[in-house]
Amino acid sequence: MGLLAQMRRDVACVFERDPAARSKTEVALLYSGVHAVWAHRVSHALWARGHHLSARAVSQAARAVTGVEIHPGATLGPGLFIDHGMGVVIGETAEVGEDCTIYHGVTLGGTSLDPGKRHPTIGDRVTIGAGAKVLGPIEVGHDSRIGGNAVVVRPVADNSVVVGVPGQVIARTTPHTASDKPDLEHTNQPDLIGAAVANLLDRVDKLEYQVTGHVDEFHMHPRGGGVWEELEDFSI
Question: Which of 32, 40, 104, 164 could form a disulfide with 84 if both were Cys (CB 3.0 to 4.6 A apart)?
């Protein structure tokens, strides 16, 4: 795919994934995430031709303007949408597939000083939520969703949801396919710790009832709507 065709696709994907977009002119002139991707297309081409200093100069200029730092050695597939963009960091050996969505504060980083492959490989149609960190030479499978603020340090199979620190992989109840609309629900994630604690409390209640014939009302449980009412909010 030529550079101009890629740029057209970069603009088109914004309308698919951002309801705030009003026109192609607005996207082309005012979307910093799009500008960062376009600058990378140029810097990556220079990098591939051995013009490393010029490539780094372009990428650093783009970082200063957009707040997005993409090493010119990284490989970005067509249809990548970096929404808002600020604080995104993509390392030298990172690879991002087609039609991916990355929100602000995301890092595709390395975990070693090895000059070889040290950054993640992201599959097609992956959504990476705000603040998430994907670290090391791991693979994130196609059609997966990384929840906001998750820290992913292990490989992720296709069609997975990852939440928490460190990231825990959860199988999807309904698999996502290439023909589906983009999966942007990166905040729609289960509370694994909360679910585990609630399960333990239920088991304690059952054991208490078996031993004493009643359940201690002091046990804390969230009321209707999942709101914890027994705790102080420690507001200042």
Answer: 104
